[in-house]
UniProtKB/TrEMBL annotation:
It is a multi-pass membrane protein. InterPro entries: Lag1/Lac1-like, TLC-dom. GO terms for molecular function: sphingosine N-acyltransferase activity. GO terms for cellular component: membrane. Residues 88-310 form the TLC domain. SMART domains: TLC (SM00724). Keywords: Membrane, Transmembrane, Transmembrane helix. This is TLC domain-containing protein.
Amino acid sequence: MSAWFSAAEAPPTEASPAAALDEAALLLKSFTRDEAELGARAPLPRLDGYVFVLFIAAQLALNWALRLIIARPLANFLLATPKRPTRALRRMVVKFSQACLELLVYGSFALIGLVIVPSQPWFWPSKHWWIGFADGGHEVMRDDLRCYYLLYGARYVAGFVNVLLEPKRKDFVEMLLHHAVTVAVVGISYLYGWNRVGCVVMLLLDPADVPLHLAKMFKYVSDARESRDKKLAQRCTFCADRVFELFALVFLVTRIAMYPYVCWSAHVEATRYFPKGLPEWTCVALLWTLYGLQCYWFYLIIKVAVRMMATGRAEDVRSDDEDDDPKDQ
């Protein structure tokens, strides 16, 4: 096993909140630098821990700022919210704002991942995820990749908190499990040098969520405007259905078809290059757990598709609150 502490020595760095601010600024600037100018080092647990906490706090603050400044005003405008909205419309505003925020967050991370991950020299073929792991050095990451990794883990911690605070979905438990497993995968793979397969997983998981939340936004506008502007509602319903079809296709390709190859590579291909220890087998188990959750959600997608063929419009079977009153829908 090649652990983070067996990597090439990094220059000593003071681990303090002040140093973490400087480190966070340096990492964020790496997104704008040329590849030739980027540094690389192995994780420094204490310093990276401070940076990780900073990123969590920043993303929680940014999420609520985006909700208040962009998502909520956009919801009120597109849903044509009156001064005294009904209970059902207030809930719809909350759901639209949540979907809009998720669209911005997942879209941003999907773009960052598409720029950073394929530019790594080991990206493909998959044997390069494992060759040389036993000799050490895989834990050394370019600054842009390290920043992406820490931001991604912080995003899922912030998402875990948001799941607890926001209206509960029917798959509330599954969402909590998904966020917890993802954070565990990110943390273990970061510390033990499995970052190559870890960031490939990140790259595959984000894109499908973009059309999903866009479809939800179209659906909420359609539902809110149905009694006041039927033509607009029909157009939004049409757009919601087409975008949902795009989401189902992207989900099928990235999470059901491509993702299990990553699980296979970590489970089988990696064994050709080094013997696995407890951290490696833990990562393998967590990766397969994530795949099980993807299969569960794809089952829900199929249910939506069947309902869509029967009724002519898509309804997200996982987005309703558990305590929704049917008469408020």
